[in-house]
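Record type: monomer structure entry
Structure origin: computed from sequence
Chain ID: A
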Amino acid sequence: MSTVKLHRVINTVRAHQPIVVLQTRRDKWTNNYGEIPNLINKADMAPWDIIVPGYPALDVNKLYKATKLDGIVLMPNGNHKLVVDVDTDIARYNNIMRDIVSFRDLYHLNTDIYGEIFRYD
């Protein structure tokens, strides 16, 4: 299985609005955590991880279109998390940065891995 580098996955999200799926896994780090199927991250040989901040818990195992790349949580081990918005009828609240920071801080607390947040506007 071939892997996709960070710059290519960024371009894919920005230009092609790929399909993403939220996972049934509901950990204490974020309401909406999922992946981009078929785009594999070399760091863990699994699909690229996404978080979808700004929403209550969305439906899992449902396909969504990633409509915008809001940023990235860069992890020192290469297992970066893409911060995306998705196509849904549910209203997104304004303070998404709160969710991103909360995810990063809880991830660090539980894994001892600290990510750097980069936002796109």
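Annotation 1: The chain has one domain: 6-119.
Annotation 2: The first helix runs from residue 6 to 16.
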